Structure formats: structure tokens, C-alpha cells
Amino acid sequence: MSTDDNSQWWLAALGRTVIWARLRVLDAGTAEVFDSDGNTLPYDSEDSARAALMDAEFTALDGMDEDDATARGLSLEELIPPQADDDGQLRERMVQKLPARR
Predict the structure, then answer these.
(1) Tens digits of residue pLDDT in 6-17
(2) Is residue 1 part of a domain?
């Protein structure tokens, strides 16, 4: 699935495991978050969706720099959002175990 202008990728890291969430802003101004369990969670606005993600300790990939990634034990170049043809396939890729760093 291609990333469109209305999608934002968020992540949480547990060691070398990255958990992704996709926030999508809809035309009506509402938002939805596709989570790592394959659920699509509706929100009344982008702000409320972002607040829910932050409360769950997710960080927006957009704007993250190498120092932010390093603080999580990761490298920015490793943080590539998952892609798939549909949300069913995407669900399987929303949790990524990254190889150990050397």
C-alpha cells in the first residue's frame, strides 16, 4: 500500500522490536489509527489521534532525527514503515524485530 499525503507513521520501540501505527487523516477532518493488532481506531480529529498515540508512548516518524532514534537504541535508516497491498497483509508487518546491532 502506498503512503499517501494523509498518512503518518508512528512507532514505539521495545529493545530491537519496532511497533508501528499508521495515522490517517480523513477528508471529513476525522482520523483513524491502524494499529499492530490490525484494528482501525476512529478519532474525532487528528489532534485526538495524535494524543492517543503519544499517551501510548508512540513517536511520529516524521521529524524524528538520528539522535531520537539512537536514544531508542535504533538507527534512523532502520526505521522503514511496513508496506503491503492491503491492511490484512500490512497487519502482519506492523511489528518488526530488527537484527542485533554490531
Answers:
(1) 799 999 999 999
(2) no
Q: Determine the Cα–Cα distance for residues 52 and 40; give it in Å rounded to an integer.
A: 13
- Would you give the DSSP letter of residue 64? -
State yes or no: pLDDT of 62 exceeds 50. Answer: yes
Q: In sequence order, what E strands does 26-63 have?
A: 31-34, 40-43, 59-60
Number of domains forming the structure of the chain: 1
Identify the domain containing residue 18 by its residue range.
7-97
| Residue 66 forms part of a structural domain | yes
With beta carbons less than 8 A apart as the criterion, state whether 9 and 81 touch. Answer: yes
> CA-to-CA distance for 50 and 15, rounded, in angstroms?
23
What phi and psi values does residue 2 have, to the nearest 5 degrees? -75, 150
Query: Strands 95-97 and 40-43, how do they pair?
Result: unpaired
For the entire predicted model, the pTM comes to 0.90
Judged by DSSP in three states, 91 sits in helix
